[in-house]
Amino acid sequence: MLEIYLLFHHLLSQSFIPPPLIPVFYSTTSYPSLLFHHLLSQSFIPPPLIPVFYSTTSYPSLLFHHLLSQSFIPPPLIPVFYSTTSYPSLLFHHLLSQSFIPPPLIPVFYSTTSYPSRCITPPLIPVVVLHHLFYFGMTTTITAETKVLETELQQLENAFSLSQETKERFIAEFVSEMQAGLETERCSKSLRMLPSYVTQRPTGNEQGTCMSFDLGGTNLRICLFELLGARTYRIVRQAKYIIPESAKTATLFEWIASCIEEFSLLGGSADSLFGVPCGFSFSFPFAQTALNEGRLLSWTKGFNMPGVVGQDVVALTQQALNNRNLNVRITAMVNDTVSMAVSCGYLCPGGQIGAIVGTGNNGCYWEETRNITKLQPSSTCSPSSPTEMVINIEWGAFDYTRSILPFTSYDAQLHAASISPGMQVLEKMISGMYLGELVRYILLYLVDRNLLFSGSVPPNLAVRDSIDTKHISSIIADSSPNKLAVRAVLLELYNVQNPTACDLDAVARVCNLVCTRAKILCALSISAVLLKRPTILSAPLAVGVDGSLYGKMHGFQDTVRDVVDSFLAPNNHNISLHFIPDGSVLGTAIIALKQSIAP
Questions:
Q1: Where do the Hexokinase N-terminal domain residues begin and end (predicted)?
Q2: Rounded CA gap, 47 and 88, in Å?
């Protein structure tokens, strides 16, 4: 009876047992029959369970005909059924080919000729199989391996989690670093707090034609806008170009110019953009002394074009445009997060923060100029000085010493293999560019421990960047009982044919723990920036966010909103978060337009 008891509790844990049957189980010996009939009525009974519960030869025949009516029986098996008793064996192999057989049981089935006990469909573990496993002593091995895997996964979840104390320390130190960055110039190992020289908040009433191009970590996007006022706009024309690896390391500005030329021709001629204010959204750290110039401080996001650090990126891009005789003049260059802050202000009253959460990750906010003491006094103290300026935080560099962030051995592996080891510690925990690699390193570790995929490394799992955030999002969104999406991703990427239930669960949990940490850290960064200016928190404030990770990753927006609310909502602060897909280009175009008409 032990195996019957185990089966019942397994089914109960999987919510396959209806509540009325539970007291029956504990009060009578008739529950096997009741359970069987319930499962049979729900079409959960595979062939071997029938003879287990009833000693009659009619059940296999009845079930076979039922399967036949449901198109589960391939035509070649039909005559075999009527002429021989070997059909259970053939049926097993058919079910195996259709991935209906749980992988952990396959070697058990092949070690015995008891084929009727092989015909099983997930998630049931029939009594005959449990009895078989007990007989061969395999339950102890499976249980031990499962316990080791569970222990490893719990340790991983602990390593990637943040306690409430750590979250509070994060925010306190982040705010302190922001203040220090406003007072003195900082190196790339801290929050640099770069002035953007964007000092005019949008009103939402701006009107006119303007354009911008946004260089991100993956794509170059070019847009021509018509601002309509009343916080509305229209995209006249747009195009997106995938950045080739050659551009990231050698020919970036020439490639940008070629794309803008192609975009111009979409309007009928190379002069179609003549006279249109043009802004450049640049998602890399750069220092400015004016709105139309910017000196590159360092490359991030996998870019490493030599000879550019320290140079004026606007001048280099403008020269490439001039070389092609294009009548396009760059009137403003801003960080993509600065563009987002301006977009948010144009579209939403109370826009205060702009953030990008995609291939890379960064944020900016509106700060009082009197607090930016590292600026020249003439920029902050004269009566005509603007009262506010957007500050590009460059928050990806936070916690260079790793004294607060949950830095794991997998993060260390990631840094060692990156272009900039030891740099951008926070960014490498949040950005979409790195999440897949973190997942891959963990999966490799589990395989090496013989806890995943039976200890066999799928060849592609050893390939760098073989899993991306699109696949990870699909995995963490999978709520199906049999983890169909997880199964599909493993088959597509790594040709894993028969993952076990433990494999599927482990992969899903690894993806979740990596992504949950990213979501929480992103939310803590936003919360810290909001708390930097406590005097304005009584008014409704808006946070504008763009980026594929924030927009497409399952649960990202909900988690960020929940964490931000946990730190700000208790004090009745009215904070709203807005996903603005056009933000990184719209804001730059607005800035260029305002710059072109400025006195």
A1: 153-346
A2: 8
